[in-house]
Amino acid sequence: MKAAEKGSWRIYDEENPIPGYFEFDWLSSRFPDLYHEFAISTIGLVNKLHTIIDFSEMHVLDVGAGTGRSSIELSKRAKKVNSTDVYRSVINFGKNEIQRLGIQNIEYTYGDRDKLPFADNSFDAVIFSWAEPNYIEAYRVLKNNGYIIQMASIPEAICGEITDVLHGTNSYDQKIFLSSYPDEFEQRDNTVFSSIPLVGLVDVHRFTYLSKYKSVEELASIVGRLYGPKAKEYFTTRKQDTYSWRNEIRIGQVLK
Ligand SMILES: C[S@@+](CC[C@H](N)C(=O)[O-])C[C@H]1O[C@@H](n2cnc3c(N)ncnc32)[C@H](O)[C@@H]1O
After folding, report:
1. Of residues 208, 212, 192, the one with CA closest to residue 200
2. What is the band of 15 on the pLDDT scale with cuts at 50, 70, 90?
3. CATH number of the domain residue 37 falls in
4. How many distinct structural domains can be found in the chain?
5. Distance 115 CA to ligand 1 centre (A)
């Protein structure tokens, strides 16, 4: 997919969306700048992850790295980051961003999560940040004791605080989106990672993160383009420039 001209996502027809309109992979590859502006929740996820794991001596693989948000944040603490994605336009966007910021410890290459272009036992950690996982491939490229990490919003509120508004549902207590809502921790068995062999249980961390945007108008434009008019109206009527997410980080250590 060829990237559209920067900023062109701002001109669109909400009532007659073109195919792919609400598909994230399509949108991010067509409008990488839009995805990059939107993906602030990734900063919250990686910042939290840095409080849990010390990556300073680790070689990390970021699968489905997109426009580079997750890799850029990881690179601030990790020894080295390899980033992969399958859409050339987001890879190009990410590479430009990494170069613009003068980051030296990220190598961004084409790579399909289902056939990662790396040898067995290559990495200390594999990360799927807001990306579809392939646990078996992650297991293959991880070293013994390496970390498998999956992070995104909690599954029951995949669009963050506007999930119920968008879907007309009542699937969570709205209080979980208050910044004061407490963190939660639990452990689960390896079935959450398709039963790949693990050293112990899977650690599951839940926390609330408020993505802060430049202005109410900017946030409304971004979510309007991504989720449609209801989302735009939600932030405009509240005059709100933050977007709250209840996030979840799952961490296991593989046994080889
Ligand atoms: C929602 S984005 C996440 C980007 C980034 N990790 C972040 O946290 O902001 C998901 C990414 O997965 C990529 N993707 C889709 N199919 C893939 C595949 N088979 N292998 C690798 N990446 C893929 C998409 O192109 C997209 O950039």
Report:
1. 192
2. low
3. 3.40.50.150
4. 1
5. 14
For residues 187 and 171, give the distance between their C-alpha atoms in angstroms, rounded to a whole number.
23
Nearest CA to ligand 1 atom 14: 64
Helix (H, G, I), strand (E, B) or coil at 168: coil
Residue with CA closest to ligand 1 atom 6: 65
**CB-ligand 1 contact for 129 (6 Å cutoff):** yes
> Using one digit for the tens of pLDDT, what is the confidence trace for 37-64?
999 999 999 999 999 999 999 999 999 9
| d(C-alpha 39, C-alpha 101), whole Å | 17
The verdict on the CB of residue 247 being under 6 Å from ligand 1 is: no
Q: Residues near 71 by Cβ (< 8 Å), separated by ≥ 6? A: 62, 65, 81, 83, 94, 98, 106, 108
Q: Give me the amino acid identity at 151.
A: M
Residue-range definition of the domain harbouring residue 80: 21-159+173-211+242-253
Which single residue is written with the structure tokens 């799952």? 250
